[in-house]
Amino acid sequence: MTLVEYYQYVIIPILGISVILVFIRFLKGPSLADRVISLDMLILMAIGIVVIYSIIYDQSTFLDIAMLFALIAFLGTVAFAYYLEERRKRNE
Fold it and tell me: What is the overall mean pLDDT for the chain?
């Protein structure tokens, strides 16, 4: 089994199943914090999928897209954390 076959038949299906499970957590999350964490995990898994495809098809431009996803995920998580902190301060 070559490395590309390993990516296609093992890693991509595992990432696909985990995307489905995390999306269910995103929909059913009992609190806003759970939804924020699951959204961050969804973006992280999207980054993993883009990186795997970048390796398989030998396209380094996909890595630029992965870096943009990472930047968006980081800024989104920081914004949600700030929002949750401000909301907690107002409730006290």
Answer: 90
Q: What is the pTM of this model?
A: 0.82
Helix ranges (H only) for 1-92 are 3-6, 12-28, 32-57, 61-91
Question: Half-sphere exposure of residue 45, counting CA atoms within 13 Å on the CB side?
Answer: 19
Residues with Cβ within 8 Å of 50's Cβ and at least 6 positions away in sequence, in order, are 62, 63, 65, 66, 69
For residues 2 and 18, the answer to whether their CB atoms sit within 8 Å is no
DSSP 30: S
- CA-to-CA distance for 7 and 85, rounded, in angstroms? 40
User: What is the spatial distance between Cα 42 and Cα 64, in angstroms, rounded to a whole number?
Assistant: 18
